[in-house]
Amino acid sequence: MEYAARIRQKLTAGLSPVQLDIVDESDRHAGHAGADAKGETHFHVTVVSAAFTGKSRVERQRMVYALLADELSERVHALGLTTRTDAETTA
Amino acid sequence: MVDQNVVERIKQDLGSSDVVLYMKGTPVFPQCGFSAAVVQVLSHVGVPFKGVNILEEPGLRQGLKEFSNWPTFPQLYVKGELVGGCDIVREMYESGELQSLLTEKGVATGVNA
């Protein structure tokens, strides 16, 4: 769980999320380009954070990408993102 | 620094087509599930677009990441502006925002490509 743990740590520190779900979907992509025998290449991350308030979708994803720049350049090949504010999830 | 030739190339793409999709593979033969998903959405909406295969152009691939400040593909542009990648395009399609955006920008939809 090395990369998942790193993603959790960085997003928690950077966005103080009220909800953070990290799903490793690497096994669905085994054997194709970008897959690594060690796994942890494809993730879907759901972040609910007040830090996204007033930001566009593009700005929100850029915030996440910036926090995870190292992980994306090392091993993580695909990162699906759902970014919401608390108000949007309860609305 | 982004290579100026690459920047010129991107500007030319974005200037000559209202809707540009930088993707892995081609619209007919996408080589990535996320790129395929965006192609599918665009076909459903019925909007003509230019697909550019970044797997064939490593310089363009790297340059685009810096140009757009966006590290992944696909990247969808409407009238020169980055709309987003697969998650954003799918969300906007499901909520109807993608269709509104295209209409707002004066891009015809419902065309059978």
Structure notes:
The complex is a heterodimer of chains A (91) and B (113). Chain A is an alpha+beta fold. Chain A has a single domain (3-90), classed as 2-Layer Sandwich (GMP Synthetase, Chain A, domain 3). Chain A contains 4 helices and 3 strands. Chain A has helices at residues 2-15, 57-67, 69-74, 86-90, and strands spanning 19-24, 42-48, 78-84. Chain A has a 3-stranded mixed sheet. Chain A is elongated and about 40 Å long. In chain A, 26% of the residues are buried. Chain B is of the alpha+beta class and 113 residues long. Chain B has a 4-stranded mixed sheet with strand order 2-1-3-4. The longest helix of chain B has 13 residues, at 4-16. Chain B is globular. The mean pLDDT of chain B is 94. The interface between A and B is medium-sized, with 15 and 17 residues.
Number of helices of chain B: 5
> How far apart are the first and last residues' alpha carbons of chain A, in Å?
33 Å
Which range does the strand content of chain A fall in?
15-25%
Q: Give unreliable regions of chain A as ranges.
A: none
Helicity range of chain B: 40-55%
Number of helices of chain A: 4
Indicate the radius of gyration of chain A in whole angstroms: 13 Å
What is the tally of beta strands of chain B?
4
Q: Which fold name corresponds to the CATH topology of chain B? A: Glutaredoxin
Which strand order does the major sheet of chain A show?
1-2-3
> Strand-and-helix sequence of chain B, N→C?
HEHEHEEHH
The parts of chain B where pLDDT drops under 50 for at least 5 residues are none
CATH topology of chain A: GMP Synthetase, Chain A, domain 3
From the coordinates shown, what is the CATH architecture of chain B?
A: 3-Layer(aba) Sandwich
What is the structural class of chain A?
Answer: alpha+beta
The side-by-side strand order for the widest beta sheet of chain B comes to: 2-1-3-4
- Seen as an oligomer or otherwise, the chain set is heterodimer
